[in-house]
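Q: I'm building a small set of examples for a reading group on sequence design. Run inverse folding on the following structure and report the sequence directly after it, with nothing in between.
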């Protein structure tokens, strides 16, 4: 069982930055892809970014491209989401998710992820 936990959320004004972290229970090298998703109140959960098992490939949503960067440090079993130039529309509960072992490829599909954190709140004021 893989355990993941997000941190780093908070309140920021438009144009500001936040860095989210996702700590996984795995020790050493990780062989699964990871992703970030977000959900605003009353809305469906949506894809934000994904990174392959070795960090060589990434994909992100059109709405965050050029502003958000996903990265990972497998030695620390940690995935990051650097968020710059934040907009009020970025407000939501941000979730970190992990694919199963040996599922290496990036994915924007919710059902491709087996393990989810409990979320960290990001609020961007006007």
């Amino acid at each position: 069982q893989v355990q993941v936990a997000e941190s780093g959320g908070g309140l920021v004004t438009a144009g500001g930055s936040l860095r989210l972290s996702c700590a996984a229970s795995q020790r050493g090298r990780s062989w699964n892809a990871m992703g970030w998703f977000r959900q605003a109140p009353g809305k469906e959960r949506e894809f934000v970014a994904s990174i392959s098992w070795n960090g060589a490939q990434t994909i992100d949503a059109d709405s965050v491209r050029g502003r958000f960067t996903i990265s990972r440090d497998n030695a620390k079993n940690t995935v990051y989401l650097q968020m710059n130039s934040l907009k009020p529309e970025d407000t939501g509960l941000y979730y970190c998710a992990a694919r199963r072992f040996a599922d290496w490829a990036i994915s924007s599909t919710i059902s491709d992820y087996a393990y989810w954190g409990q979320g960290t709140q990001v609020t961007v004021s006007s």
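The chain is about 0% helix and 45% strand.
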